[in-house]
Amino acid sequence: MTLPNPLTSSSLARLGGEPCFTGTRVPVRTIVDYIEGGHQLAEFLADFPDVSREHAIAVLELARQALVGQAEPSAA
Predict the structure, then answer these.
(1) Is residue 1 part of a domain?
(2) For the chain, which end, N or C, has fewer CB atoms within 10 Å of the first or last residue's CB respectively?
(3) Residue 71 confidence (pLDDT)
């Protein structure tokens, strides 16, 4: 499967500019909310069939990279 490039997109005309999985109206925030709520990725994918497993994992990896890149080393 070919992933969209970019993985996420936003438009003021779609959900007020909320970042979504490209090609869908599914906000990226939704997958974060699912995981934070203790749900499995499979539950998210079942509830949002417009998002492929590969696309979801790629967006989560993008988020991980952003978070790890922002982390500052501690002195401890």
Answers:
(1) no
(2) C
(3) 67
